Amino acid sequence: MSAIFVLAHHSRGEIGPLLVDLEAWCLKHKHHLWMLPADAQARGVGHLASDRDAMDADVVLSLGGDGTVLRAVHLLDGAPVPILGVNVGTLGYLTEIEPSECISSLQKWVDGKQDHDFIIDKRMMLTVLLKRADGSNDISWRALNEAVLEKQQSGHTVWLDVVINSELFATYSADGLIVSTPTGSTAYSMSARGPVVSPRHRALLVTPVSPHMLFDRALVLDPQESLLIEVVGTRPVDMALDGRKVTSLTQGDVVSFSPDTCTAEFLRFKTPKFHQIVRTKFGLGDD
User: Fold this and answer.
1) Which domain holds residue 247?
2) Which of 21, 58, 66, 260 is catalytic?
């Protein structure tokens, strides 16, 4: 018997029938299935609601797009539980299978052996550590895609010092800075003209957003290089992780970035074809 935790997009119509089939399969094979109360209520399956932790699961099933997958990553908070992303919506980078493949894929996972019938794709995450100028307690977070330090006030830039290996690299005047993982290179960083990096790499990417300076290139750093960003201007800065605002920063606050000791784990049934996903996403094969 396996423990299966489900996260579901609240409004995608295709998810309703999928949940019916999934519950029937779990009952037949005596697997335990549960959801967050808010998700269960939104999908009309309140009987599946539970306060049981996602970390107790043998697998997390994400029904939605990449945003739902990121929600699963944050709920697990570094716990070594594989996520199976079911693509309900547009093509995503993190989802693995289509809804019609969900039950058969779960059965293959239950019956199969790792590295033969399925693989665990481990992705680097970021540790983001905030040290306040006022000396209050440090705060740390994890992120899979990126951390973004960006302006609060429209029409104004912010001033940010980038310190690499304990030495000042540059003071950026920009709308913001993105620090991303290779997985996050195809998210916000790419829209700011950052490089596309294979998720097989381990690296820290620093991409400026609308820089008001001559140097406007992204940096690709070795993961062992230390990276600090300090707010040096008086204008306030918002910090968001994987698209969610987590705090605001003021002058003298320092944020450090490093590879996390934990990875995000994804259940795959074939070798990930990252470059083919990029090709499809951007129509590179179109005539």
Assistant:
1) 125-261
2) 66
